[in-house]
Amino acid sequence: MEIRHLDLLRDIARRGTLTAVAAATHRTPSALSQQLRTAERELGVKLVEPASRGIRLTAAGQLLAEGAEDILQRIARLQARVEASAGAPRGQVRIGTLPSAGEVLLPPLMDALAATAIQIDLDDFDIAEEDFAAQTLDADIVIGHSLTGDVPTGASGLISTVLTREPLDIALPQDHPLAGRLSLSPEDVIGCDWIGVPHRYPFDSIPVAIEQLTGRSIRRVVRLRDNHLVEALVAQGQGVALLPRFTTRARDGVVLRPLTGVRAERAIVALSRPDRHARLAVREVTKLLVEIGRDLSETHAHDRHHRA
Amino acid sequence: MEIRHLDLLRDIARRGTLTAVAAATHRTPSALSQQLRTAERELGVKLVEPASRGIRLTAAGQLLAEGAEDILQRIARLQARVEASAGAPRGQVRIGTLPSAGEVLLPPLMDALAATAIQIDLDDFDIAEEDFAAQTLDADIVIGHSLTGDVPTGASGLISTVLTREPLDIALPQDHPLAGRLSLSPEDVIGCDWIGVPHRYPFDSIPVAIEQLTGRSIRRVVRLRDNHLVEALVAQGQGVALLPRFTTRARDGVVLRPLTGVRAERAIVALSRPDRHARLAVREVTKLLVEIGRDLSETHAHDRHHRA
DNA sequence: AATCTATATGTAGGCTAACTACATGGAGAT
DNA sequence: ATCTCCATGTAGTTAGCCTACATATAGATT
Question: Model confidence over B119-147: pLDDT tens digits?
């Protein structure tokens, strides 16, 4: 029995098809099929059987996959202990991030890692809150966010670390009538033209909350994903929008004002599967992200004082 | 990290030198040395360091070896569960045995295994009681014996199964004055010429007990290892000897008489390391040995009735 | 002191086996 | 009926594990 076989069984259990596992591990389905038959020959037991267009684990395969989950995690922990006892963290760490959070977190991270033996492999995506958890199959650390609390929906069983809590402010054109106010209430902004995000995208939950609170509905003139594009349109006077405070850089023509009366912040969170989090390098990167997140909060706490 | 590396570290911890591990695993020391460096490179940590003529595990190596022990045992148990759930026991089982016990246990065992997918790899040795435990490094099952109790000395941490308790009888020439008696006491036999075994060999503990009990010393005319040779010399009239009842086949010129007043029996025991015992095939063979041992006791219980 | 022996390591080459590319086959979906 | 997705089979390439042999070192032996 080889680790490679345990890995394969676990991945099949997680992803369902050989093709999916092959894509995730940068191999061909043929290679996996051959490995599977090697494992079956060595164990003397059928592990998968055809089902619909794909395959399904047999009872024995299921058993093995569950045991593999446990064993691979123990191996990861052992390896982490060994590294911690006698070595510096090393190796590649795959980070998946939503772009707005990555924009402020990753440059300082790369800076901090320059002197270490840790390499970062980066991926970005812009997805719904409940899909962040699934990304932990591919990445060691997923930087996501939650609008509803400190742990994104669907992240049970994952290690979830809050990096920072970022206020979501109302972005206004500099010459907007409300730009003179220090903070804004739902009633202040319900009548404005809004630049929103697509349905089901995390940020949308706050305009929705405003609508519920005031009993009136918001006029969304356009729905966009990219915050920088939104920012440009706000500056140009198309409407107001909700933008994360840390990511929205000072820019001519746009001002940010805190929104009161609704919980307008997102928790930026790092998610990892337990086995991946066992790696020393992964924990080291998470630790650095927490520090960067803390610095970010502190810096912007000062900013606000200046503006106020 | 590969299972092969965990195995290697564990074996180094157990056997101390690369040469010993190489001999046990049928490889060259060079191969192991290369594997060690591969593991060190992958982990980024030194695992061994030169010490005296050989090597010694570093702190990290020690840690890894201990963790490997645990993980490899879990893998073995998982594999056993899978086999049990969907397959018949399979594969090679290495048995080390002391010849006298193997002589009666193994023929019926081979018979019982003929219909299965279990192959037996056999080794035999004639060693002191406290050395049986060490043999479990090489064999899946060690058939040994204990004169002092049900578990041989040095077998702590091993799985020990009593296969049978075999009386040790006094073997006499057919025409010996004492041959007419149904049983013999220490006083009866203390004055005879004895054919003994070498010092520290298990059987020697009983003549020693007789000497202690009677306060007189036994006259050993010769010390031999091989029971069949002893038997031949008894038949020829050289003296009396202590012989195991089940193994000493009916033979012209020799009679066996029970010895009373001292505990004259040996426990025949199967020993296995826990990780090896996890294999279904190993447990199956152990189970068969227990059955064969029980049959043996019953058969000879009848024998004695006949003779008495 | 010189030699011997046990142990580990380095190098070159052979062989196994894991992988890729490509082709085939089957089962749902359109 | 065709298309699409998924698994499997075949041939050839390649990586890496192992052996054989040579070398280095430290303790044991004479």
Answer: 898 888 877 777 888 889 889 999 999 88
Å between A34 CA and D13 C1'?
Answer: 17
Strand D nucleotides where any atom sits below 7 Å of a protein CB: 5-10, 17-22, 25-27
Tell me the CA–C1' distance in angstroms for B74 and C12: 39
pTM: 0.74
Instruction: Write the pLDDT tens digit of every residue in B100-124.
Output: 899 899 999 999 999 898 989 888 8
The CATH number of whichever domain residue B132 belongs to comes to 3.40.190
Q: Which residues contact B134 (CB under 8 A, 6 or more apart)?
A: B154
Quote the mean pLDDT of chain A.
Answer: 89
In this prediction, residue A87 carries a pLDDT of 76
Instruction: Report helix, strand or coil for A245.
Output: coil
B136 and B276 fall within a common domain: yes
Decide if A159 contacts A165 (C-beta within 8 A). no
Q: A184 with A247, same domain?
A: yes
CATH number for position B200: 3.40.190.10
Q: Helix, strand, or coil here: A265?
A: strand
- Parent domain of A205: 166-265
Question: B149 touching A, CB under 8 A?
Answer: no
Residue A28 and residue A17 in one domain: yes
Q: Say which CATH number the domain at B8 has.
A: 1.10.10.10
**Nearest-10 crossing angle of helices B280-307, B59-86:** 70
